[in-house]
Amino acid sequence: MDYAIEINNISKQYKGFLLDKINLNIPKGSIVGLVGENGAGKSTLINLILGISKPTEGNINVLDCSNTSKEFTDTKQNIGVVLDSPCYPEAINVKQINNIMVLTYKNWDKEVFFEYIKKFKLPLDKKFKDFSKGMQMKLSLAVALSHKATLLVMDEPTSGLDPFAREEIVENFIDFTRDENNTIFISSHIISDLEKACDYIAYIHNGKLMLFEEKDAMFEKYGILKLSKKELETLPEDAIISKKENNFGFEVFVYRQRVNRGFTFEHASLEDIVINCIKLNK
């Protein structure tokens, strides 16, 4: 299998925090979602991938290039980046950003850029400082998608957007990876967006990678049962991940393969799975 990103035994030490020996390979042509609580290390990992910060140990290859090498400057031409706090000069507008990007990216496509600007309903002459959070994120996405990048690395790209805008942007992600050479690595707290788009999910907790699985395999692994107290007592203890009592009995989150035959499972959403993985590790 070919990988767009290869993370090898990466650690990053800060005062009071350690990103600890992360090993993670992102397959080319896939959309990989990164989830975890605030402060778990998601943004730290993204900064390491982009070469914004340097690791305490380990190495990272991005698009077959070490991100500490001189050649990585050229490789960045093929990477589209959306960070949770877009960094454009406050006084410039969309037209001026286009003029800057023409000089920044060898493969900058002005027509594609303004198609996205029109699609996202962004004003051409309004100053960036007067953009709402949602407008800023849309502008960052328009830039990331307009220079023929083969890898998108994004930190909370749908943050601050209304549900309709998020749906539109998620569809753009899916369209982008219809080309099997294109890859997306995305961190988000909006797990429902990841469920719609992602092929794989990585879960990071307190600086450690706890899980990396295909999304569909996760749905096969976990399930929800709605049971009476008597039915609950028949479940093997090692099948139960969590349970909560309600007016109708118990809702139990379980490992499907450890449950006796005869029970009817309800679908566990990706959010159900992630929340229960977090509970497991607290």
Q: What is the gyration radius calculated from CA atoms?
A: 21 Å
Percent helix: 25-40%
Q: CATH homologous superfamily of the largest domain, by name?
A: P-loop containing nucleotide triphosphate hydrolases
Cα end-to-end separation: 34 Å
In total, how many domains does the architecture comprise?
2
Numbering strands along the chain, what is their spatial order in the largest sheet?
Answer: 6-7-8-3-9-10
N-to-C SSE string, H for helix and E for strand: EEEHEEHEHHHEHEHEEHEHEEH
Q: Which blocks of ≥5 consecutive residues have pLDDT under 50?
A: none
Chain-averaged pLDDT: 91
Number of strands: 13
| Shape call | globular
Strand content: 25-35%
* CATH topology group of the largest domain: Rossmann fold
Structural class: alpha/beta
What characterizes the major β-sheet? 6 strands, mixed
CATH class of the largest domain: Alpha Beta
| Count of helical stretches | 10
Looking at the overall shape, the CATH architecture of the largest domain is: 3-Layer(aba) Sandwich
Could you explain the architecture of this structure?
- The chain is an alpha/beta fold.
- It has two domains: 3-206, Rossmann fold (3-Layer(aba) Sandwich); 218-281.
- It contains ten helices and 13 strands.
- Helix 4 (110-119) runs antiparallel to helix 5 (133-144) and helix 6 runs parallel beside helix 7.
- The protein starts with a strand and ends with a helix.
